[in-house]
């Protein structure tokens, strides 16, 4: 199976069981490059060829610079990074500017520059490694896309509800349980960072039947104002979003819990029967 989903990081901060957002799809594609990427061994890192960045926030790009410097000396391929124009502009001006970190779009490795940046837009479809990645707009504080992945993903054949064995478990457990449930035509959807509302409801409903919906939930219900201000979600918002779906996903994986609120978030999500 070439498209298995491995959650390398799904925390909304530092100090939790995993690092921050990074999802490996198959052996060669990453969605986001947060600190969870550091859990990959060097040999596995060398197989990464494509990185889709959902937005420019640090918890989603933190490991990209050092990952690329790992690749610089001894890989035989360029790393293709797909990002919104806003994200590319931030990367070029503030990270890969030859001051904070080398400009890997120009620094030469054995096969030329190790990094190639590709501009993407909501609605774009990328065919990578035999899988179809569709980008959809979400509502966050900066331009951000969610990602739909269709193909042989090896996920979600079980309709066992929303297990705690979802996105909050260490990557190895997610990986092995996925291996056992391999399938050929499946649909994984990652919302990235977003708040609830019309846009998210409409975009998720447009995507149709979903095997696994990986949806963020950053703050507990008491911090509703903060969630609105920072354009994240609370358990009440996640519940309302799921209620609005015309077709219920087979599984819901919760991601991006803020470590300081994790216990409370788990209680509230269980109250909604989401965990
Ligand atoms: Zn964000
Ligand atoms: Zn984030």
UniProtKB/TrEMBL annotation:
Gene3D superfamilies: Ribonuclease Z/Hydroxyacylglutathione hydrolase-like. One of its GO terms (biological process) is negative regulation of glucose mediated signaling pathway. One of its GO terms (molecular function) is 3',5'-cyclic-GMP phosphodiesterase activity. It comes from the Bacteria. SUPFAM superfamilies: Metallo-hydrolase/oxidoreductase. Residues 19-232 form the Metallo-beta-lactamase domain. InterPro entries: Metallo-B-lactamas (IPR001279), Pdiesterase2 (IPR000396), RibonucZ/Hydroxyglut_hydro (IPR036866). This is 3',5'-cyclic-nucleotide phosphodiesterase.
């Amino acid at each position: 199976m070439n498209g298995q989903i491995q959650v390398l990081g799904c925390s909304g901060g530092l100090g939790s069981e995993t690092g921050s957002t990074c999802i490996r799809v198959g052996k060669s594609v990453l969605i986001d490059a947060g600190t969870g990427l550091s859990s990959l061994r060097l040999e596995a890192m060398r197989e990464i060829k494509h990185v889709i960045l959902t937005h420019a926030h640090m918890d989603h790009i933190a490991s990209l610079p050092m990952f690329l410097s790992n690749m610089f000396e001894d890989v035989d391929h360029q790393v293709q990074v797909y990002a919104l124009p806003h994200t590319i502009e931030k990367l070029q001006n503030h990270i890969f500017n030859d001051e904070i970190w080398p400009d890997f779009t120009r620094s030469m490795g054995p096969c030329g520059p190790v990094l190639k940046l590709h501009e993407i837009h909501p609605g774009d479809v990328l065919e990578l490694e035999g899988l179809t990645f569709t980008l959809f707009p979400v509502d966050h504080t900066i331009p951000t896309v969610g990602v739909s992945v269709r193909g042989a993903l090896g996920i979600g054949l079980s309709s066992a509800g929303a297990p705690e064995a979802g996105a909050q478990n260490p990557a190895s457990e997610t990986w092995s349980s996925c291996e056992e449930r391999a399938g050929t035509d499946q649909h994984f959807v990652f919302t990235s960072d977003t708040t609830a509302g019309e846009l998210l409801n409409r975009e998720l409903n447009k995507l149709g039947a979903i095997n696994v919906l990986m949806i963020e939930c950053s703050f507990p219900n008491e911090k509703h104002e903060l969630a609105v201000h920072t354009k994240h979600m609370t358990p009440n918002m996640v519940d309302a979003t799921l209620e609005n779906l015309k077709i219920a996903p087979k599984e819901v994986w919760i991601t991006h819990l803020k470590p300081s609120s994790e216990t409370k978030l788990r209680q509230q999500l269980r109250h909604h029967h989401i965990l």
